[in-house]
Amino acid sequence: MIISIALILIVIIYLINKFEIYYFKSFEVKNLNVPVAQFVRSVLNETENLFPCTRPYNLELRYYQPKTIMGRYFYETNTLVIYISKSSKLLDVTDTVIHEYCHHLQNHMGKKEKKKHLSFMILNTGIIHGKRKLEN
């Protein structure tokens, strides 16, 4: 009896977790109640609070979605470029912003600091450069 109740609870928790993941993955840019630029800037501000960098950077939002990339970082100009369409998923946009900001950090830090930030990027976003899987 106790085992069956525990099993039922585990199944319920599993289903709730799956629902939450599906629910948050379904949010798109078109669902925002604020301008996209404000959303991206908020993500960057939170990331900067965790990992400040004294070097300034430029941010460009491009309102179209190439087939193979979601963002780029240009080392020569310290520019983060984020590609956005109305159907872009908010989780993907957030991951991309953090990913490109990490490139900015890597561009201006020593080896020890780079390792720390790379660990943050992998643990918190699950993104490794060149391993990002685009979902449609």
Topology:
Layout: H1 2-25, H2 36-50, E1 58-62, E2 71-74, E3 79-83, H3 90-107, H4 111-125
Parallel strand pairs: 1-3
Antiparallel strand pairs: 2-3
Helix pairs in contact: 2-3, 3-4
General description of the model:
- The structure is a single chain.
- The chain is mainly alpha-helical and 136 residues long.
- The protein has a single domain, classed as Zincin-like, CATH 3.30.2010.
- The chain is built from four helices and three strands, in the order ααβββαα.
- It has a three-stranded mixed beta sheet with strand order 1-3-2, with helices on one face.
- The C terminus is likely disordered.
Helix/strand-derived class? mainly alpha
The mean pLDDT is 79
CATH topology: Zincin-like
Kindly give the count of domains: 1
The low-confidence parts are 127-136
- CATH top level is Alpha Beta
Query: N-to-C terminal Cα separation, in Å?
Result: 44 Å
Largest sheet: 3 strands, mixed
Percent strand: 5-15%
Note the total helix count.
4
Q: Taking Cα atoms only, what radius of gyration do you get, to the nearest Å? A: 18 Å
DSSP summary, beta strand count: 3
- Known CATH architecture: 2-Layer Sandwich
Oligomeric grouping of the chains: single chain
Globally, the shape reads extended
Q: What is the N-to-C succession of helices and strands?
A: HHEEEHH
Helix content: 40-55%
Strand arrangement within the widest β-sheet reads 1-3-2
